[in-house]
Amino acid sequence: MPGTQSVHSPAGAGGSKGKLSKVIIVGAGPSGLLLSILLARQGISTTLLEQTSKLDEQPRAAHYAPPAVQILRKAGVLDDVAARGFKPSTFCWRKVDGSLIAKMTFPDNPDAMVVLPLDRLGKVLYAHAQKYEPVAKVLWSHRVVDIGQDEKKAWAKVETPEGEKVFEADYIVGCDGGNSKIRRALFGEMNFPGETLDAQIIATNVYYDFTKFGYLDTNYIVDPDNWHMVAKIANDGLYRVSYCDKPGMTAEEYKQRQPMRFQEFLPGSPKPGEYKITNISPYKLQQRCAPKFRVGRFILAADAAHLCNPFGGLGLTGGIADVGSLYDCLVGIHKGLAEDSILDKYAEIRRKIYTEVIDPSSRENFFRLSKNDPEKCAQTDPLLLDCQKAEKDPKLALEMSMFLNILLHDFTQYYTSRPSI
């Protein structure tokens, strides 16, 4: 991307205090929309730039753990999300023949996990964002082609349906996903260190009656050759089935193999016509983290900042936790309660949470399915042993269900002033 030599931290950017006038958010996925809503509720003007012409219709992730639930509540959208989704009651691990290895029942609590496919969440968030116009603006078909900054502002050169325009703001936040243009502009070709795991996933959304086989809300199947996940993601009988296949084939070849694969590992060995697939998407598993989450007036969040494999929902919930943290920091600056340097804290701590919690935990979740011995793991895997204990200990079950609150961090503790009462 040409002309990006000016994206380095401007001199004096760490000492200013005072109200924000505007924030630009790049990417109208759930993280970008959620940040826009949160800031608009505090009277902070946001312009959200999205290169596509409409919301992403790919369903992708669906599970929002307690940290994400708390932030959705703060944004005033949780009731609508819960009304369109559901709260799962159990999750378990099984052998490929369907026999149970271990399970845990979720205790009922206000912050319990909510399930709603990401494409449906996007529609809920966009409807809420529209309520805050003109404080919050969403501009479709606006593709960022260049960025820059100085001591007073950041800017983005954008291709629009009306021609090229330049948008300016106090800060620009990259919420534009794993292929983030903002991250690429900041860090060039070496923009996303990490690795692609040696595994191939095929994610499908499918209507099939798993309940007649005794399947629970979320089922992880432990098997070295046919590891997969079966999770209910809607009240109308829609399930997410994410399964492994041999690496190295084309997307079309994976799609052609799907009927054979379902017969090999799904209960009842169903044939086409006995289920209905609404979506199928092959993808690689990534464990990656940007070198920095802040460069001057540019900030990264969610998938633009870090990626992990989907098992355990750490990428989605971790991304929403980023948004909640960044919201606290920007509101503190806006209200004169925090200095610009609080954004360095955001970058430091959110990156640390990824490297010390999200990355190792998501890897462990992946290896639990693909590398464990299904005949022995109930007696050897620490998490599965804890799940068995939690089935008899409601207090332990509650602690385990709320474990991911470790992804949250209170950034108001770094405010240099306290709000007047």
TrEMBL record:
SUPFAM superfamilies (UniProt xref): FAD/NAD(P)-binding domain
Domain FAD-binding as annotated: residue spans: 22-359
InterPro entries named among the record's database cross-references: FAD-bd, FAD/NAD-bd_sf, PheA/TfdB_FAD_monoxygenase
Pfam families attached to this UniProt entry: FAD_binding_3
Source species, domain of life: Eukaryota
Keyword field: FAD, Flavoprotein, NAD, Oxidoreductase
PANTHER family assigned to the protein according to its UniProt record, in alphabetical order: 3-(3-HYDROXY-PHENYL)PROPIONATE/3-HYDROXYCINNAMIC ACID HYDROXYLASE, BLR0106 PROTEIN
Name of this protein: FAD-binding domain-containing protein
Species of the source: Paecilomyces lecythidis
Species classification: Eukaryota, Fungi, Dikarya, Ascomycota, Pezizomycotina
